[in-house]
Structure prediction request, 85 residues.
Amino acid sequence: MKKIILKVDGMSCGMCEAHVNDAVRRTANVKKVSSSHTKGLTEIILDNEIDLDAVKRAIEETGYKVLSVSEEQYEKKGLFSILKK
Prediction:
């Protein structure tokens, strides 16, 4: 699985977070999406490849600005993940 982190400018409240999350869900098939207006971040968890340009366009059409995009591997942390170390 992969985690995509978007730096999003213009979010100022919980409704802004919901608008960004809805734009991502409408545009791409993702496992999970969460946004934080205080951090200015949107995190997307996914199994497959997505069209990042389409996601960025959808967010910007909603009225927010995507400043940067980064990707990293995502490992799901379960109840017993601390025992694996």
About this structure: Helices lie at 14-27, 52-61.
